[in-house]
Specification:
The protein is α+β, with helices and mostly antiparallel strands and 150 residues long. It has four helices and six strands, in the order ααβββαββαβ.
Length: 150
């Protein structure tokens, strides 16, 4: 009986430590060099702090978004489109138009050519089109789980 109580208590402590560590990780306390990502500059700073190379590659207007994409090349081979809005509410409103699988945005059905991965942070919508697991893991480590895409 006593062994069961201690086993249950130990299980609760381990669960609490795991949840606490996840919160500390997501909020940046375990990685003080990482700042909360809210805009283009903080995204590129965090990518570089995580060891990635980041090269700006210009702007790209897409007809289904109200702002132009700022394109960056990550690690010399992965184009990432970053849409920065005036405020978080505008980014949220536009993100709501993206279907869960990323195949449509409002009434538009873009031909991505590969799997789209959409992330949201602060005033940003970040789009990576591709299937490189290292790239997906890098973006998820900084931005959290994708909100739409494959």
């Amino acid at each position: 009986m006593i062994k069961r109580k201690y086993a249950a208590l130990l299980a609760l402590v381990l669960i609490g430590v795991g949840i606490g560590s996840l919160i500390l990780y997501r909020e940046g306390f375990l990685f003080p060099h990482r700042k909360k990502i809210t805009d283009f500059a903080s995204l590129t700073d965090n990518l570089q702090a995580a060891g990635a190379t980041v090269r700006p590659s210009g702007e790209l207007p897409l007809p289904f978004f109200s702002v132009k994409a700022q394109v960056i090349i990550v690690n010399e081979e992965h184009p990432v489109m970053v849409f920065e809005y005036a405020d978080e509410a505008s980014a949220d409103a536009e993100a709501a138009l993206i279907s869960p699988d990323g195949s449509s945005i409002g009434t538009a059905k873009p031909a991505w050519g590969s799997t789209p991965h959409f992330y949201k942070a602060g005033r940003l919508i970040v789009l990576y089109v591709g299937d490189n697991n290292n790239m997906i893991e890098l973006l998820e480590s900084l931005l959290g789980s994708q909100f739409a895409g494959g």
